[in-house]
Each structure stands twice: as structure tokens, then as C-alpha cells.
Amino acid sequence: MKVLQFLFTSSIGRKVLMALTGLFLILFLVIHLLGNLQLLKADDGYAFNKYAWFMTTNPLIKTVSYLLYATILLHAFKGLYLAYTNRKARGSKSYGAYNGNANSHWTSRNMGILGTLILAFIIGHMSDFWWEYKFGDIPWTKYETSITDETTIATDITAENHGAHIRMGVAGDKEVFITKDLYKETAEAFEQGWLVALYVLAMAAIAFHLWHGFASAFQTLGMNHPRWNPLINGIGKAFSVLVPAAFAIIPLYVYLLK
User: 148 with 120: CB under 8 angstroms?
Assistant: First the structure.
């Protein structure tokens, strides 16, 4: 109980909470990227749709997903509150006492704005894909994979043909996978140039957010030592560039080459 009181009421506790939730979301980004990279495979969406099926049916993953949603909201609203209190505190000082350009990088001064943009993107992203996958009317596909030579044939079907249930099984010498085709839904979405541009801009916002947030999270948790700081900062900078860039490549690839 005292731990929760510390995390939610004290100024230091709120920063620790931001660091812990931020690191959890960083881990999620890596896992989410590994799944999304399946979109680049030339297999008619078989690998990506199996990934989507696993992520939405595995009991452990489903439980963790609720924790993820709560973490996103907690991180976002706590971050906005911290940004508000920091700005309010700076407002009480004279310009001579506080010169933001001299004392900090602009990413650290605008974490609230970047976080708000990212939250808006997440809401739109989930409505376009997660909500559609769960409740929308998206196409269905049947994949038949030969057990002997592992070749896969994809066939468009309608929900009425199979009772609208995602399932996997074996029929004769073939593994049969019937699923909602989130791959096709995603590919069609990324045929729209404005949506691709919006997605890339959102990845840029995430990159700038991580540029400050990655190393800051470790410092908040007390991992601040002259020997390790250059390594943590280097990993943080590389992560903040490479991971959002990899996410951005996916819609660009679909839009330009598919």
C-alpha cells in the first residue's frame, strides 16, 4: 500500500512510475515490431495472420494485453500531468532563472506534446486495425499448407462458408488455417498515401519521444553512473532511431512496392 502511495502521490514516485511504464512500453515496441515485420514476407499474409491469431487467442498474451492498455493510459495521463506541473513550476520563474534552450534538449521540454501526438496516433491506429479485427467486417482467407513440401495456397472465402470462426486443423495431407485476413486489411490501408504519411510522422514523434525518454527512464531508476551512462545513452539513441524507422519502413514498403 505504501508503495502505491509513493508511486501515485509523491513527485519522485510519479517519475519512477513513468520510467517503469515507459520501459514496459519500450519492450512492447520490440515485440510489436517483430510481429509487424511479418507483413514483409511474400506469403500472402500467412505469417502475419498467424501472428495476429496467436496474439488474440493465447490466454497469457490476452492477459498481458489488458496490462498493456492500462500501461499506455497510465503513462500518457501521468506524463501529461507531469508536463503540466513542470510548465507551471517554470512559469513562476523569471526568464533569467530558467533558459530552456540552455538547460535541456527540446525533446525533453516537449515530451508532453510528443506524448499527446503519440496517444492520438495509438487511438487511431487501434480503431483502424484492432477494432476492425475484433468487430469489423474484414475479409476471410483459407490457407492450405502441404505437410509434405510446406507450400501454402491462399483462397478468399466468406464468413458464411465456415461459420465465422478462426480455426486451425489438419485435413488429409494439409494444414488448414481459416482466419480473418488482417494482412489484406492492413495492405489496403497502406495503399492510401495520406495514411502512410501520417504513420511515418507518428513514428518520427515516437523517435523524438524515445530520444529523451529511454535514457531518462534509467536515470530515474537510479542507473546513473559515469561508466555506464555512455552505453545507456548510445543504446537509447540507436533504439530511438532504428525501431521507429523499422516501423516506418513497413507502410512505405507496402505503398511503394506492393
Answer: no
Sheet holding 167-171, edge to edge: 152-157, 140-146, 174-180, 167-171
| Contact in structure between 160 and 50 (CB atoms under 8 Å) | no
Q: Return per-residue pLDDT of the chain as tens, 258 residues.
A: 667 666 666 778 778 888 888 899 999 999 999 999 999 998 999 999 999 998 888 888 888 888 888 888 888 887 777 777 777 776 655 444 445 554 455 566 667 787 888 888 998 988 888 888 888 888 899 999 998 888 999 998 876 555 556 778 888 788 999 999 999 999 999 999 999 999 999 999 999 989 888 888 888 888 877 888 899 999 999 999 999 999 999 999 999 986
Tell me if 198 is assigned to some domain. Answer: yes
Give the residue among 14, 170, 126 at the shortest CA–CA distance from 77: 14
Place of cell 510548465: 87
Domain annotation covers residue 69: yes
121, 153, 180: which is the final residue of a domain?
A: 180
- Considering the domain boundaries, does residue 79 fall inside one? yes
Please tell me the distance from the alpha carbon of residue 215 to that of residue 111, in angstroms, as a whole number.
Answer: 14
List the domain range (segments joined by +) for residue 163. 140-180
Cell numbers given for 147 = 505437410
* Within a domain: 30: yes
How far is residue 232's CA from residue 210's CA, in Å, rounded to a whole number? 13
- Looking at the structure, tell me whether residues 64 and 76 fall in a common domain: yes
Residue 34 has phi, psi (to 5 degrees) of -60, -40
B/e letters for 26-40, b = 16+ CB within 10 Å, e = fewer, are bebbeeeeeebbbbe
87 and 160 part of one domain: no
